[in-house]
Amino acid sequence: MAFKRGTRFPVSHTEAFPMGLILQGQIEPLIKYNPDRNAVPEQRRDYDPKTNEGTQLLMWRATVTDPDEAKSKRASFDMIFLADVVPVPSTEEVLPGMRQIVLEGLLAEPKVMGQGEFKYLGYQFYAGGIKGDNSGTRNVAAERKAA
Fold first, then answer.
1. Which pTM value belongs to this model?
2. What is the pLDDT of residue 1?
3. Element (H, E) at 62
4. Are 128 and 83 in contact (CB under 8 A)?
């Protein structure tokens, strides 16, 4: 059985990150690349025009750290949030700019990572929101995936 490129699989937060996850800094809009420097920045949406698939939700990026990862180069990575508004964590800071978070609507997409002879199978993670989100919105990405 073969899966199409870009196939995402639902996974629970505790399966993917058994020791939890730490949010570093703020959650920011994921901006489309535009070679024209004078163009107005535009936020990306979860949509692939080649396959005509996606949730059409806005994409947000945050740097997170997985304390369970043994290799230091793989411990911190970008988490992509799919939501109409920016997710706002409700937890207190454990250190300045660092918060423990629990993700909702987590999806994993297998991806080849690394360079040259040092390639390995990794995952790009997408989350629908943060548990205890203060933005006042529901988890739209998880609801659309479940439907």
1. 0.83
2. 58
3. strand 59-65
4. yes
